[in-house]
Amino acid sequence: MLNRLAPQSPDALLALIKLHAADERADKVDLGVGVYRTGQGATPVFGAIKAAEQRLVDTQDSKSYLGPEGDMGFVNALMPYIFGEDATMGGRIQGMQTPGGTGAVRLALALASKAGMTRLYMGTPSWPNHAQIIGDLDLEWSAFDHANPDGTANLDAVLAAIRGAGPDEGVLLHGCCHNPTGIDYSADDWAAIGDAFVESGAFPIIDTAYQGLGHGMEEDAAGLRSVLAKVPEAFIAYSCDKNFGLYRDRVGAFYVMAAEGGDVLDTAFSNANALARASWSMPPDHGAAAVRMILRDRDLTAQWQDELDQMRTRMRQVRERLAAAGTAGSVDLTPLGGQNGLFSVLPVSKEQVAALRDKHGVYMAGSGRINVAGLTMDNIDKFIDALADVTG
Ligand code: LMR
Questions:
Q1: What angle do CA 32, 383, 29 make, to 5 degrees?
Q2: For 225, what's the count of Cα atoms within 13 Å in the CB-facing half-sphere?
């Protein structure tokens, strides 16, 4: 039976981790997979997480099953951060825990499909795993251009996609810190996007994996909230893997907003629970329990927010430094200063990406995406020189 399987190439982004690890050059630079790095190039566990984990070890009295919805204390504690003061929008929003943001996206798309979504519209480029999940679920989908060549969002394209979509069609958007471009919508853009959803009745699916890494927790939720304030229904996929630094612990959540609380919302959840049970049964507990402990403790919350602020500040500094460099060879670095989060895409060819890796030990995705957090004040000049060398 196994002879019938066709070989699959490894996920290109994750394969970069191994390639970089095998490179023996001391001055290699890792701008590949999206993890935050300090100015010293480390990805330490947040102090607030360490403290919460210690409390967990000291006080957790059982590891008995929780259920497909996971740790509801975690799910509910996050809601005011995502949705604001009226966190349930008057009982219209309910959530459940998922294995990472990937689990949440997978659940969102599987549930949309089960509810009869006939087509999904997605801005490209997008996080490569979006297309992989869409393919695995066998969904019909269409692309629209997310970005203009000058590093701004292509608002006309997203509005045309939403206005052209029918009520049985979905549109997948990034809530903030767009992966891979770092190009987010402005407040006015989001207002127009919300109006377009109301006009067409298309179903919003918003993936928020980087809240707090752009301009702040509140600021990064503003676009999402402005859409939710207008539309009757939506799905939200959420990740704590970056803003709590919990990557391998796989901490995510999936939220459904229905036109009103009650039967429709409960039924949507019974379906989400059934899909989760059949997929992963229940999500891993540890990281979500640590986040719950942080969010229920004032001092730990303050410590976490301070650590998150430091991450964001450092990434802003790197972006400012890149923008101040102006150009490197044929690459204009100035748009990077106005972009958000971990990522930006450079206009480089696959050959130039390979030359950066082979000749200079600079690792980045084949799409030209860089993780700006991989740059430090020690390696940024080397990176700019290498870029100038291969594109000049
Ligand atoms: C990334 O885009 O690098 C991260 O979201 C990690 C991943 O799972 O791809």
A1: 40
A2: 19
Q: How many angstroms does the Cα of residue 34 sit away from the middle of ligand 1?
A: 5
Which residues form the pocket of ligand 1, taking CB atoms under 6 Å from any ligand atom? Answer: 13, 33-34, 127, 129, 179
SS3 assignment, position 94 = strand
330-380 tens-digit pLDDT: 999 999 999 999 999 999 999 999 999 999 999 999 999 999 999 999 999
Is 207 catalytic? The answer is yes
C-alpha dist (Å) from residue 246 to 105, 306, 365: 17, 16, 22
**What is the C-alpha to C-alpha distance for residues 375 and 31, in angstroms, rounded to an integer?**
7
- Token pair listed for 138: 């066998």
DSSP one-letter string for 115-146: TT--EEEEEES--HHHHHHHHHTT--EEEEE-
Total-model pTM: 0.96
**242 is annotated as an active-site residue:** yes
8 A C-beta contact, residue 118 and residue 168: yes
Cα–ligand 1 centroid distance for 206 (angstroms): 17
User: What is the rounded CA–CA span in Å between residue 75 and residue 72?
Assistant: 5
